[in-house]
Specification:
Layout lengths: L4 H21 L3 H16 L4 E4 L2 E4 L5 H20 L4 H18 L1 H5 L1 H15 L44 E2 L5 E2 H7 L7
Antiparallel strand pairs: 1-2, 3-4
Helix pairs in contact: 2-3, 2-4, 2-6, 3-4, 4-6
InterPro entries: DUF6114
Keywords: Membrane, Transmembrane, Transmembrane helix
Protein name: Integral membrane protein
């Protein structure tokens, strides 16, 4: 065993961890995880036999097949969220609907454990939005990425709360040579900018 072996294994572990972190950041990872974890108790409890001392408690119901189908579908939807993140909206809505159906079909949604996990997973899938690629190490800001109050490439200040910015036309001069702000404001939709 050489002195470099722990360093190499730590480097491999760090590299794998960073690759997993990058993979996790490009998809609704937590939504898929909660949905998969929600499907397991929904599918498991109707077929489980719990032993309490010498007493066996069987929770088999007539809807055991329905519970199994709901659980398998939730696991499949969770994996879909991981590997086909473009279908996250469909998978999120389907996970929420299946979680609601599991309340009636599967022992109160896997004793509320599976129901709550699947519901949170579906909500996370609906709320997840892919991130925008970073502008790189240059630090340049363009368009809507410019901080509030700073100018975008066209010289127009970018303020998210202000809405669209239309440059103001100079005041028009009337027949008598004076500026007529009322006529210009009427042309601009009632608001005088500038």
């Amino acid at each position: 065993m050489s002195a470099e072996t722990p360093g190499e294994s730590a480097g491999t572990f760090a590299r794998l961890r960073l690759r997993f972190r990058d993979w996790r950041g490009t998809r609704p990872f937590w939504a898929g995880l909660f949905t998969v974890l929600g499907g397991i108790p929904i599918a498991y409890f109707p077929y489980a036999t719990l032993k309490l001392g010498h007493m066996s408690l069987a929770m088999a119901t007539t809807a055991g097949a329905g519970s199994l189908i709901i659980g398998v579908l939730l696991v499949t939807l969770g994996l879909t969220m991981w590997f086909q993140s473009a279908t996250r909206v469909f998978a999120g809505v389907a996970a929420i609907l299946l979680a609601l159906v599991s309340l009636v079909v599967s022992n109160i949604g896997g004793f509320l454990i599976g129901f709550l996990l699947a519901l949170v997973g579906g909500a996370l899938a609906l709320s997840w939005v892919p991130g925008k690629p970073s502008s790189g190490a240059t630090g340049d800001h363009h368009g809507s990425d410019a901080p509030a109050g700073q100018a975008a490439p066209g010289g127009i200040p970018e303020d998210p709360a202000a809405g669209p910015y239309f440059p103001a036309a100079p005041y028009e001069k009337g027949e008598d040579g004076e500026t007529d702000g009322v006529r210009a404001a009427a042309r601009d939709g009632g608001h005088r900018v500038g």
